[in-house]
Design a protein that fits this description.
Distance between the termini: 37 Å
Number of helices: 8
Number of strands: 2
Helix content: 55-70%
Shape: elongated
Order of helices and strands: HEEHHHHHHH
Largest sheet: 2 strands, antiparallel
Length: 190
């Protein structure tokens, strides 16, 4: 609108914070106020307001659509024998620890066994294993990349996955709640 209504700037100055940025365009207050009183400005501003309202409505519609999709997504958590789940969770944790060492200089791999792990850590690893390996959590999150409503959809997905894990493994419900709180999740978005 500024270029359309005001044309060339009255003054060009070096950007105050970044020398490599394009010059800052400065306009005299009198010119700006004069244009703001014109019919042309009111017409252009009305078109911009309508366009902005339409864009907001479209974004809200896309947000609702992505939330409906996540709400309808089946979340299935396979039920494993307790010993099998513990072994797989520790194996998953050890594999991730090795991966961490390959991309973090100085990280020392510290493999653990089911017998040598503290119960709270084992519960955390079980929930992590179930969430990342036995559900479509990561795949669905990847599909949300760049979508309007992504943050709300991810939070809804997270709530649904933790609820499904809690239902399949009631002894892990407290850990699921702890992980949700640790991520700053409130009630599921609607």
């Amino acid at each position: 609108m500024m270029r359309q209504l005001l044309g060339e700037p009255d003054l060009l100055r070096t950007h105050p914070h970044f020398d490599s940025a394009p010059p800052t365009r400065l306009y005299s207050i009198e010119r700006v106020e004069g244009v703001e009183r014109s019919e042309e400005f009111r017409a252009v501003a009305a078109v911009a307001a309508r366009r902005s309202a339409a864009a907001r409505a479209a974004a809200l519609r896309r947000r609702r659509e992505v939330l409906v999709r996540i709400a309808a997504e089946p979340i299935e958590v396979p039920r494993l024998a307790p010993d099998r789940l513990a072994a797989l969770a520790v194996e998953h944790r050890n594999r991730r620890d090795e991966e961490r060492a390959s991309c973090r200089p100085g990280h020392v791999v510290q493999p653990v066994t089911v017998d040598g792990v503290e119960p709270g850590a084992l519960a955390r690893w079980k929930v992590d294993y179930l969430r990342h390996r036995l559900t479509r959590y990561d795949e669905i999150r990847d599909e949300l990349y760049g979508r309007t409503g992504r943050a709300a959809a991810e939070e809804l997905l997270r709530h649904r996955v933790y609820a499904a894990i809690s239902e399949a493994y009631p002894h892990l419900a407290r850990e699921c709640e702890r992980q949700l709180r640790a991520r700053g999740c409130g009630p599921p978005p609607g």
